[in-house]
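Hey, resending since the last one bounced:
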Amino acid sequence: MSTTMPDLASAAHRRHSGLLRRRRNIDHVVTALCAVATFIVLAALVSILFTLVSNGIRGLTFSTLTRVTTPPGNGGGLLNPIIGSIIQTAMATLIGTPVGLLAGIYLAEYGAGSQIANAVRFVSDMLLSAPSILVGLFVYLILVAPFGHFSGIAGVAALAILVIPIVVRTTEDMLRLVPLSMREAAAALGAPRWKVIMLVSVRAAKRGLMTGVLLAIARIAGETAPLLFTSLGNLNWSVSLGQPMASLPVTIYQYAGSAYDDWVQLAWTSALLITAGVLLINIVARVGLRGEDR
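The structure tokens again:
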């Protein structure tokens, strides 16, 4: 029996319908898996924030913010760790950000195919993935052991080293996303290369560059391991960079496992303050960038 044209058309239609139905089913399954994964991430994030706020808010009083740490049972606060964290984080950001930005600009704009650029990129990626405790140990060997005591400047150096590779990687990636036509248009007007980079490429990528800096601040604000080897912590009031300096992450490490309830409460409040600080910096930076775009 011979096959007619309508039979062939019907068979092709059935195959096409089956293929379309299979693709739709696969799309529904992938969509459901993505939705489940998103829900798991959101549930974990909400759970962490709820635990942090519910435990930390109870210790967030005026006295906590204005008194220094004291022995257990004396109503001590977090003034010295707060000031120590602000000093060390701010100085590390001010030192590490320009170095990271300039290195990232070199990799993206000048270092195409260069062996030096490849070496810098490799070292930067290694630092980005290296455990922060190794950075702390390195700074301990060059800034703590030779002088015989821990210091705030050693903590700043360790945190600055952690800032650099994050800013380098984000700067290079963001500048590579700037369309080549924008650079060519500026160069066609006779602008020198450095002016094209600073006024066109960097300006176009400023949101991404700011995001990189914020990521770096968020990371070093919660780093504990490198500070244990460098600034160590200080139960007394001290803003001298030549002496051991208190910080909120080290306070969390030292107090969270304490047998005293008031110290455990200070650890929870310290964690809440770090989270609130990073959130505040993020909001201020984004509002500022939005204002510049108007």
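The two ends are 75 Å apart (CA to CA).

Sorry for the duplicate.
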